[in-house]
Design brief:
It is a single chain. Helix 3 packs across helix 4. The protein has 2 domains: 117 residues, HIT-like (HIT family, subunit A, 2-Layer Sandwich), CATH 3.30.428; 92 residues, no CATH class. With 223 residues, the chain is an alpha+beta fold. Strand 2 and strand 3 form a beta hairpin. A 5-stranded antiparallel β-sheet has the order 1-2-3-5-4, covered by helices on one side. Helix content is 48%, strand content 13%.
């Protein structure tokens, strides 16, 4: 049986239920992507279906293909950002019956578990809020650009998100910074945006003037 939401499910309801173990990165076509707070394996994330189903077989074929495409897109982003030797995949859910995959980057010089099954929750390594913010921004930017979209399409998506409220917020600025840094050397307008975003990261505040400047630079790119 397929339902959209279960009021007792963390992946359906999010909020405090998800905050116990994860931080939402962004939504994809068929899934929601979360950073796993326990970061013994740098870059560990969860990809959860947008439908409250227990098994892959509960999804319609097109929905199943879309979900697995999302899993692959997240794996590509993890390889691009963190360069792991391998990404492990785990889909369990004996007690939490909402289809989700743990994607766990593995490194040959890891302190433990290379060559073995990753622990469900080692409860060993947690980060500061700033470190979480940086990881979320890097993964979100990698997902936004992707192999299929390219920079221009990614910028259009970001500009659309900013247009919703007419200003840049701190989370948007962090994603923008990580997305644009690799391209700043080749484009003066992107370099100007990056300079503005660096200032925002340094003081942690997005002023109305900074928002207006960034939006104006975006509009110049799309003119």
């Amino acid at each position: 049986m397929m339902i959209d939401k279960d009021p007792n499910c963390a992946y359906c309801m999010e909020g405090d239920l998800v905050a116990k173990f994860g931080i939402k990165i962004r939504e994809l076509a068929a899934s929601k992507v979360y950073l796993f707070k326990e970061q013994s394996h740098l870059g560990r994330v969860i990809v959860a279906s947008k439908f409250h189903v227990s098994e892959m077989v509960n999804l319609k074929p097109a929905q199943r293909r879309a979900f697995m495409d999302d899993v692959a897109a997240v794996a590509e982003a993890l390889h691009r950002v963190f360069k792991p030797a391998k990404v492990n995949y785990g889909a369990y859910g004996d007690t939490g019956c909402h289809l989700h995959f743990h994607l766990v980057p593995k490194y040959r010089d890891d302190e433990f578990e290379w060559g073995g099954t990753f622990a469900m929750n080692p409860d060993r390594k947690y980060l500061t809020d700033a470190e979480y913010d940086e990881l979320v921004a890097k993964i979100s930017a990698a997902l936004l650009i992707g192999n299929g979209d390219g920079l221009f399409e990614a910028l259009q998506k970001l500009r659309s998100e900013i247009a919703d409220d007419g200003r840049v917020d701190y989370n948007e600025s962090s994603v923008l910074l990580e997305a644009l840094k690799p391209f700043a050397a080749d484009d003066q307008y992107i370099a100007k945006i990056v300079n503005e975003l660096v200032k925002i990261r340094e003081d942690g505040v997005v002023s109305p003037e900074e928002s207006a400047t960034i939006i104006a630079l975006f509009d110049h790119i799309f003119a």
